[in-house]
# Entry
Amino acid sequence: MPVIMHPWRPVCKVMRTKIVWIAYRGGMPAPTKLTKLPLGPTGEAVAANVKRLMETQNLTFVALADRLQKCGRPIPTLGLRKIVAETRRVDADDLAALAFALGVSPSTLLYPWAVRDDELVAVTAAGDMSSLRAWAWLIAELPPHADDDMMAFFARAWPTWVRRNVEILKAAHGDGQ
# Structure
């Protein structure tokens, strides 16, 4: 078996028609995690949720890549594998496309999955909170912390048409509730 040496390629052995990679020579090993800016709890939640939803829907990486291709935001199978392995970040457009392709809301992918509503979950920048509050915050029903000004939160978080509909409902009730 001849050994082929390249200064910039991995060392490999040629075995008939197959090339078998033996070791990297003079290079860095493949990264196992993002090192420059590691994923936070929300990035980890996205990766875990993509994996969980693929498993519950019996989706392969190829099938999910095909769905993403069809919805106009292709992510190759290698990219999907890296997302699940937490070695590739998901940007906002990828998040929306993944949610669409998996048949869920983008909030579902961002949510640190919990079984009970009183479980503490880690949320990037907000710290630990109950899973109930984390979900309510993701869908703009509650501010991230109990002592936050709720009306100011709604004014910032809700689209104008939602705030207008709430005002109409309050006026229809007449008592301001």
Notes: The chain is about 45% helix and 10% strand. Confidence is low (pLDDT under 50) at residues 3-26. The beta strands are 3-4, 11-15, 18-23, 120-123, 127-130.
